[in-house]
Amino acid sequence: MTTQSAFGRRLRRYYGWYTGSFLAFVGLLAIGEQFGMSPGVIGHVFLFATIAIYAGIGVMSRTSDVSEYYVAGRRVPAVFNGMATAADWMSAASYIGLAGTLYFSGFEGLAFVTGWTGGFVLVALLLAPYLRKFGQYTIPDFLGARYEGNVARIVGLVATVLASFVYLVAQIYGVGLITSRFVSVEFEIGLFVGLAGILVCSFLGGMRAVTWTQVAQYVILIVAYLVPVVILSYKVTGVPVPPAVYGSVLDRLSAKETELFVEPREIEVRERFGQRAADYEAKIAALPDSLEEERRSLIERLNRLRIDNAAAREIAHAERALRDLPKTPDQARATWEQARVEAAARSRPPPRHAEAHPGDTPVQKRVARNNFLALVFVLMIGTAALPHVLVRYYTTPGVVEARRSVFWSLFFIFLLYVTAPAYAVFAKWEVYNNIIGSSLSLLPNWVASWGKVGMVAIEDINGDGILQLAELRLNTDVILLATPEIAGLPYVVSGLVAAGGLAAALSTADGLLLTISNALSHDFYYKVVNPRASTQRRLVIAKSQLLVVAVIAAWVASMRPDNILFMVGLAFSIAAAAFFPALVLGIFWKRANRPGAVAGMLAGLVVTLYYAVRTHPFFGGSMAQAWFDINPISAGVFGVPLGFATIVLVSLLTRPPSQEIQDLVDYVRYPRLPAEDSEAQPDSVAVRRRTQS
């Protein structure tokens, strides 16, 4: 205990110096900007300095010890494990996507805050202390021991890789987005620049390096998140406490919404978008003839422009339109349907920020409410079942520390989540007051700079040269990153926000990469393929798998499959359906057995994936095929209850687990001596032997 206390004091001293040095570094850059340092230099310094810090920690934490590589030696104090868990948890979705979702969805976006926060309550009550009592290295380890064999382990392995990979793609996408904007490189190049920072930490030192890097990354991301919104709060209200004062701005914003939505030019613009949606609907109905007619029309227009010696810009625009025209009726149907949906959405006023479950009819309101509740449910259950989060509680010295680290995790996450609604309100207030209604020739620089990376688009559909609300299209992920520029803050604040976003994406990507590679090397190679593999060989396999998975994830992210928040939400649905029923029943119900667990995990996983594919446009699906109008991000709402029901039913119809396994459940569930609680178990066999004795 004395050694552990000294270790904790040493960590507090190190990270205290680190935090002070980082704040001084930001201050020096701010002074440099005042003396003429260019935005490009500031962006490069933030990017490469922070990556260098993470790489340095990774190099200093390198290890070849199995326990250090997989679970950081099981000696991470609760406070620091809470910081590392918060960084691991607060991914690009929380950091970048949450403020944007609240910006566009208002009240409905609170489903993410409620679900994610509530999930940690489930972690503390149902899973973290019991998994730490069990010991071992991974979640499939628990499934393999509790459900007697490698079948449950392999199903858990597949679900771990799938959920973590989808989540990982979202993080690497966020890395590419940040680096491409702030270092002025192509999106695809930005992906691999950020990937290098991810790999240095996880490749060299495993969980040990990732843990201490994530603590450093939490400091950067929380400072970067709070500084701009505190400045913006002071600028708008005169009070630098965003959560306390954004309510008054929300009242003014509601009045501004009423004014904008009934403005005559805004109504005209929305009517034009409505007409465009109707035109696309007519063209879809007239396929394939409408495609040929569209092609003839574009060719005739292009020839006429050339004959009339039109401006080169007009000719180039006509050539591009002809080149981008769909080649087949099926392609035209998909492309035009997507355009129709977008035009129809822009023909309607956005939901009012403070309105709960918006809709024009009682049916629409009911659908909005059901989707809100379904999303809260999936995010809560998914949070409690994410392998890369649960494995963090294997790293604490004992069960008591595991419980404490859940508290600290919630506290450190709370600092960001309580501020996110204020971010959305202040950003929307700035856009509605200072951007909407401006001349297109006088728009601020951030509109053009973010437009170059496809995050902002403007279409003057009524040709009046004035920007109406419906003519501005913002990507969800741009709200937080562009807020300092939207508010006219110094560029060093923009660089700080980007560094924080990079820290959030890298910290979660590190944890996810490690979870996937450990599952493949430990749960598949060591536990199934070659149980006699040496320590050195196991680590070589883990690191090689890490590299392969990282490159594949970067390639998938380069295809830009969807916005960050949807990809993360899908990962939560997969984790919730595949793991939560098996883990909870495995801890609290002795009768749960191997056939039940395997059937339940497979049933929940298959139904969740089937529903996501059936309803999401990226997979060729449509909401016309949805069940109860539930959005694909909440697909797990069908998989979780099916998983519980299947495990219970199949377990009752088949033989109960052995007495040895029932004793293991007792050991995990009930307290023992303090010394016994804090001692790590070397393997599941030792757990069972100890239980029997």
From TrEMBL:
Localization in the cell: Membrane
Main location: membrane
Superkingdom of the organism of origin: Bacteria
Matching InterPro entries: Na/Glc_symporter_sf, Na/solute_symporter, Na/solute_symporter_CS, Na/solute_symporter_VC_2705, Sodium:Solute_Symporter
Annotated stretches, region: Disordered: 339-362
Keywords: Cell membrane, Ion transport, Membrane, Sodium, Sodium transport, Symport, Transmembrane, Transmembrane helix, Transport
Membrane topology, as annotated: Multi-pass membrane protein
Gene3D superfamilies per record: Sodium/glucose cotransporter
Membrane-crossing residue ranges in chain numbering: 14-31, 37-57, 78-104, 110-131, 151-169, 189-206, 218-236, 372-394, 406-426, 491-520, 540-558, 564-589, 596-613, 633-653
Alphabetical list of PROSITE patterns matching this protein: NA_SOLUT_SYMP_2, NA_SOLUT_SYMP_3
NCBIfam families reported for this sequence: Na_symport_lg
Family named by the database record: Belongs to the sodium:solute symporter (SSF) (TC 2.A.21) family.
Full protein name: Cation acetate symporter
Organism encoding this protein: Aromatoleum buckelii
